[in-house]
Specification:
The complex is a heterodimer of chains A (49) and B (276). Chain A has 49 residues and is mostly helical. In chain A, 59% of the residues lie in helices and 4% in strands. Chain B has 276 residues and is α+β, with helices and mostly antiparallel strands. Among the domains of chain B are: 85 residues, Periplasmic binding protein-like II (D-Maltodextrin-Binding Protein, domain 2, 3-Layer(aba) Sandwich); 96 residues, D-Maltodextrin-Binding Protein, domain 2. In chain B, helix 3 links the parallel strand 5 and strand 6. In chain B, 45% of the residues are buried. Classes of the chains: A mainly alpha (49), B alpha+beta (276).
Chain lengths: 49, 276
């Protein structure tokens, strides 16, 4: 039982870490939390001319 | 990166985005509705086309009578070009049925027969051509010399509080435009880079859009000109998407374009490791 819990916990931690690395844009997340005066401009675009 | 102009509009209004590339009529309509934004520069010139099925029955603009044509938004130059072509061909606005569709969906919709044609910016006309199921009926320049579509819009609070940042952004776009106009090798290099790192599209598709022919999309001159925008507002008024006249100065701030007037191309050769 304990072994199953440890493996499950490690699996969840690994998936969570992979998700955080691959799918979260940390630069944007941090920038959005800076004071307005220190924020970089976010420029929106779509893949079309 | 967004997939449609309405989402960009919402992000700009909510201050999630401080600047955006969007279709010119949408920017003008936002300003006319009191949203504090200004157009500061153009994204490009030309680069829109009306595309029909390659082996379909539509051979001329008149053949579009009674057909379904997809456009990116009712607030788009791609819609206005249809109305301009209708007038030039002595047809009525009700002769075609316009439907709004997200740009990435139109090529598939044409291939599946859900629409008869689409009026859209690149690279979607190129996508239909490369896929072998679409044919350009006409490029926007046929009916609209000096055609413009996407413009750079910036929130007024950013213009007031960070004009130097806006100037840096406009200078960079001006320099990139001049760099792109230096020849095929630069355009091909840009297609490879942008396809991989920004658009997440096939570099081959963007190469087609940027070089077939070489002036399919142009990146100079990009300064907002009064006569171009007065034509757009007149067409918007005529086609019912703008309910009152609006002065050029109310929705365009030309000082950043003037500041970028003497900019020169990036000193970077295609394939080199770094720029100056």
């Amino acid at each position: 039982m304990r072994r199953t819990l440890i493996i499950t916990g490690l699996w969840i931690a690994a998936i969570t870490a992979a998700h955080m690395m691959l799918n979260v844009d940390w630069g944007v997340l941090i920038n959005d939390r800076l004071p307005v005066g220190r924020r970089k401009l976010n420029v929106a675009y779509i893949p079309v001319t | 990166m967004f997939q449609g102009f309405p989402e960009i509009k919402e992000a700009l209004m909510s201050n999630r985005m401080q600047a955006a590339f969007m279709v010119a009529p949408m920017a003008i309509a936002l300003r006319a509705q009191g949203v504090p934004v200004k157009i500061v520069y153009l994204g490009h010139r030309y680069g829109s086309a009306v595309v029909v099925r390659k082996n379909g029955p539509i051979r001329s603009f008149a053949d579009l009578r009674g057909r379904v044509v997809a456009i990116p938004s009712r607030f788009s130059d791609e819609r206005l070009i249809i109305f301009k072509a209708l007038a030039d061909n002595r047809m009525n606005p009700t002769d075609v049925k316009l439907v709004e569709m997200a740009p990435p969906d139109v090529a598939g919709a044409l291939a599946a027969g859900a629409i008869d044609a689409f009026s859209m910016g690149e690279p979607f006309p190129s996508q239909a051509e490369m896929g072998g199921y679409g044919r350009v009926l006409f490029h926007a320049r046929k009916y609209w010399p000096d055609y413009i579509s996407c413009v750079l819009v910036v929130r007024q609070d950013v213009i007031d509080s960070k004009p130097e940042a806006v100037q840096t952004l406009v200078d960079g776009i001006a320099r990139s435009g001049l760099w792109l106009e230096k020849g095929r090798a630069h355009r091909e290099h840009a297609a490879d880079f942008v396809g991989r790192y920004y658009y997440r599209q096939s570099p081959a598709l963007l190469r087609w859009a940027l070089t077939n022919p070489i002036d399919r999309v142009m990146y100079e001159p990009l300064s907002p000109r009064r006569k171009d925008f007065e034509l757009i507002t007149r067409l918007m008024r005529q086609t019912g998407v703008l309910d009152h006249d609006i002065a050029f100065e109310e929705y365009v701030d030309t000082r950043f374009a003037e500041g970028a007037r003497n900019e020169t191309s990036w000193k970077y050769e295609a394939g080199a490791g770094s720029s100056q």
